[in-house]
Amino acid sequence: MQGMKQNSLVKKIGINRIVLCGVLLLMYALFCTFIKGFFGTARIMNILNYAYFLGFLSLGVTFVIATGGIDFSIGPVMFCAALISGYCLTVHGVPMALSLFISILVGFLFGVFNGYLVAFWNVPPFIVSMASMNIAKGLASVFTKTQSVSWPQAADEVNGWFRGLVKVNGFPTGLVILLAVAVVCAIVLNKTHAGRYILSLGSNKEAVRLSGVNVKKWEMLAYILCGTLAGIAAIFFVAAYTTVQPGYGDSYNNEAIAGCVMGGTSMAGGTASIGGAMIGVFIIALLQEGILALGFNKNYQLIITGLIVIVAVYVDIVMRRRKN
Asked: What does the DSSP assignment read for 200-215?
């Protein structure tokens, strides 16, 4: 095991990500073995559809957790963006392209709101995100008059083209887009000054501030990225599932955060892994599909996801103690 850890390729990929890939493949093999028909295109597309929007949420919250903060509003913000932009499209006749932009804009504005309160007003992230969660739910309900919104189907000659963001002739275009955005996020986090400052905030915010860095600007940027990616997640959610209802989205916060923590992002901040978060998201998406295929309801997935978060955080604590 020690020799494996010293291997240059293993060091580059990361032992945690290798283990996660092994867990993902093992889970898939077990589901295919014990569930009839699980090895098929339909199941894979269901897993991918769930992973798309959850992946964007997880990418965004990774930046926030890297600073030592947290954002529990990403699920409701995603639903708020989907409802407001969808209502503009279906009721007010706003063009599809502009509606998609509105979705991203709503997420961006929530990111600005959260980031400003945390960075400039020093309001605890937990309080800000809980407040934003309620604001997002209320705003969406008021804007849509508590009505659900159904986005156009692929057969719609005018607006159905947006479904191509997820799938074109059976090809999962959504996977390509998600992985491309993940690569960009990894470059930003690991290869740019902004990313290094965001990670440094989680390690020792006061030391970074004393070194002359504008910590408020970079901390706010993390929340803006998180909100913007939640707005993008809304687009992929409606492209896969069509109908959105007000008042929902809470459970997706925990799943997105679980993907981050499972992938190696420390809840204490200072350490983050975009690649690990992506693998964690696919594990959760696979788990969700497998549990439903076994005939259990989603509540069982919530229980398992909660246990995964506890184990992942405990492992992170143990690793930090060893390093110290």
From this structure: HHHHHHHHHHHTT--H
